[in-house]
Design a protein that fits this description.
By secondary structure, the protein is α/β, with parallel strands linked by helices. It has 17 helices and 29 strands. Bound molecules: alpha-D-galactopyranose.
Length: 679
Amino acid sequence: MTHAPRTPFAPGRFLFGGDYNPEQWSRAVREEDIALMRRAKVNTATIGVFSWALLEPREGEYDAAWLDEVIDDLAAAGIGFLLATPTASPPPWFTIAHPDALPIRADGTPVLHGSRDTYAISAPAYRSAARRIARFLGERYGRHPALRGWHIHNEYGTVDYGPHAERAFRDWLRRRYGDLDALNAAWSTAFWSQRYGAWQEILPPRQTQYLHNPAQLVDFKRFNSDEMLAAYVEQRDAIRATGSSAPMTTNFMLPTWNHLEQWSWSAQQDVVSIDHYLDTAGPDGEAHVAYGSDLTRSWSGGPWLLMEQNATGMRIGDRLATKQPDRMIRNSLGYIARGSQSSLFFQWRASAGGSESWHGALVPHAGSDSRAFEGVVALGEMLERIAEVAEPPADGPIVEASIGIVWDAEGWWSLETPHLPNDAISYPDEVRAAHRACWRDGHAVDFVRPLADASRYRLLVVPTLYALSEETARWLETYVEAGGLLVVTFATGLADERQRIALGGYPGMLRELLGVRGEQILPEPDDVALPLTGGLQGGTWSELLHAESAQVLHRYTSGPLDGLPAITRARRGAGSAVYVSTKLAQASLDELLGDLAREAGVLPVLEGAAALGVEAVRRRGAHADYLFLLHHGDRPVHVDGAGIELLTGSSDALRLEPGGVAVFRQLGGSLPATLRLAH
Ligand code: GLA
């Protein structure tokens, strides 16, 4: 299940810049763009993401003279480019020529042009048009010396429920199940008289009267991920066939989209990239940066690319929250500390028209005479000063972590099936809660694919993985037997990969390993707190649990479960497995995971930093380790003995101001840096 380690993506510098959409601007503005890019030391422009209508104004007629000119201007200024295939946004002529290739929503509504992403992924006309334009771009620009890489498509994730999806879904199901008996068994079609007697009877999970079949829903998710991956691979191969050897990626979208199974996708890319938009303007945004970075580094298995972030704002609900330059800089270095080889943004210049005119940009509407652009210039300067950090280590991880958190897209899909004991539970929220707890304690964390080698992790956390396979259950057992400390949180292992409940007591798939038997699940409304012994607090979910071979660590102290086990621990082989049967309040989860990490011998990156509000991350390089300090706290901190600080070039003790960042070169491994509040 693991894929061969890829050659680490090492462009020789941090890629700095972002989506560049010159087609929106006059020649005069484009000349200013180049001058400003040079001023800010921008070295990379992502071009072509939404250029289909200009590149192919009529079907089969290409016009790339304008793009030649853009690329010439960039290259003459020493600026490289990531070239996108524009297939996320087919032009209006495509709709008219191929009405069948538009997506259909689950309720049967056709989705027409007028926005973007109006394509049915399984429609042959769409797929061949996408291959054609990919090949055209490969032939024309694939060997250009300024080409830094290929950005295939943009954020795969448009789901179609129409006739093309129906056909392709059935083909996929035939490959998965072989015959209808196997499918009927896997989908539990004996319930509600859903038995299928012919393949033609099977539909995508379109609008229906009441609850969908959960196995059908999860299989449709699996199918879509595979189908979109096949579309990506076709474009990639079409470009490769033109002789272009530039690295290939496609930008994943975090945090809210869950259409792709990222581990299998990552195996097909030369470097994994994400678009990351903060979902809060508050301090938790810092934990969000770390979360997105750790996920992407883990998917990539090393260096990765931040393809998009917002330079000046965040869209929170129905309004814009402003991001000031110090935060933009701190966040950018936060991604880099955790393995990003870039600080790229959507977009270079704020649009004057179109649907996203109010999205942030490196050059705001006000122009370059602005605080925001000064911040961009400052960031460009900083990235040059830390350029040596971009050279990845010859071997070993770029960030060393002893804590692993299991990430499984299928876990998210299964938890989204309707009518579970508590439909309010969110997979990404639970994964993030576990990650946040480790982050607050100052630990480095990797995410782990089920069945991957987990032996380097002293602590492995499985947050709320509702459905899992026998193989995954065995894998967790092996991890524990070999001496690992496993923590499994509530609502894990209740069902198998067919969404069938494992009988005989909860959580059936892991009952033996955890040494418990749950006989009843008692979901709670979100505002009801469940006190536990030891001052911990649970809620949202609880279980009537019997500790069989497990020892009880904490008990419920009120309500119908008063005195019964809430958190348990079972020994197995050389290790042990902790089960948390309720959703712990964040502070309680912080405490529990912090204590278990210490017990497992896991040390924070820099002792004492987290308590001062300083995030410490160590990134390994080719010739040295680099300690990043990101100050999210509110009081100045005195730093001593951390090495040579690359932004200032000094090895003296320094005062790190709130909001500030420092990057230390640490020759000969980690140094005993000390931090204390400054006076
Ligand atoms: C996405 C897209 C961009 C842009 C940004 C901002 O991540 O890839 O094209 O739309 O969001 O909304």
